[in-house]
Design a protein that fits this description.
285 residues; alpha/beta; Rossmann fold; 6-stranded mixed beta sheet; 5-stranded antiparallel beta sheet; 13 strands; 29% helix; globular
Length: 285
């Protein structure tokens, strides 16, 4: 399911958190959402999911958010939740629910008001638990888990929604190296089976390793968008992150591997108003 975002804007008070963002993530692809802290990544993901910040105002435009041609804003909340799942950076984890009960919440959009679940719901939940290696912890209470374990619970809950579009905000937060790679390999596998993913990441090397396309934000605007090899280049990254980037090539995958040094304050280039590798993400051959 292709995601089209057009003229997306979110304002809180006098501040534009997202300012005229346009991008497309092709069906069955992993799109990486990059940018420094405060660049608008989380706000954009929440906008697509239908969860906007308290006190915010949106600039509405026809066809602003479309998933395979369907206007997401026109869908009822339950219908939208059947198609779009969001995993945020911070979610309540002090509730007295077991891991299995928390993951089962992902089935809520698919159930009737008084339904307690069907055998299929149970099967979906168990498969989601297995996918993130939490089967052995299914009866543990959420407050007893580590930050990384809770992050995996929230990912399993999103998988239980069986979404067409998976939105992930820093899904590798709190995870050790093995868990980071496992989580992103899972996202990669979901995309290979037709799920479209948009993933906000701080680690540019993880983005290089697992994403098909990238959108780089700065100050709420798109600075660059396109294939990985065209966005992860010094002339794009250095002014945005205020670093000096060296791009190497992974000897096995052929994908970019990046190293960074702090840029001298006096020689940091100004962030360009618009440096676009491909203004709209496109599938590469």
């Amino acid at each position: 399911m292709t995601l089209h975002i057009a003229h997306a804007r979110v304002r809180v008070g006098e501040r534009l958190l997202v300012d005229g963002v346009d991008c497309t993530v092709p069906a069955g692809q992993v799109g990486g959402l990059l940018g420094p802290n405060g660049s608008g990544k989380s706000t954009l993901l929440r906008l697509v999911a239908g969860v906007v910040p308290a006190g915010s105002q949106r600039h509405e435009a026809p066809g602003q958010l479309r998933l395979h041609g369907t206007d997401l804003d026109a869908l009822a909340r339950r219908d939208r939740a059947r198609r779009v799942a969001l995993v945020e950076q911070e979610q309540p984890s002090d509730v007295e629910l077991t891991v299995r009960e928390a993951v089962h919440l992902g089935r809520t959009p698919h159930q009737g008001r008084w339904s307690s679940g069907t055998p299929r719901d149970t099967d979906v939940v168990e498969r989601a638990l297995a996918a993130v290696d939490l089967t052995g912890m299914a009866d543990r209470l959420l407050p007893t888990l580590s930050g990384g374990e809770r992050q995996r619970v929230h990912l399993a809950r999103a998988l239980a929604q069986e979404p067409e579009l998976l939105l992930l905000d820093e899904p590798t937060n709190h995870l050790d190296v093995h868990a980071q790679l496992t989580a992103l390999q899972l996202v990669r596998q979901l995309a290979d089976h037709g799920v479209t993913a948009l993933v906000a990441l701080h680690d540019l090397n993880l983005a290089a390793a697992y994403c098909d396309h990238l959108v780089l934000l700065a100050g709420g605007r798109v600075v660059a968008a396109g294939p990985v090899a065209e966005v992860l280049v010094p002339e794009v990254l250095d002014p945005v992150y205020r670093v000096r980037t060296t791009v190497l090539t992974h000897p096995v995958t052929g994908r970019p591997v990046l190293t960074f040094e702090p840029a001298d304050a006096g020689t940091t280039r100004e962030v360009p108003g618009h440096v676009t590798a491909h203004r709209v993400l496109q599938t590469t051959a």
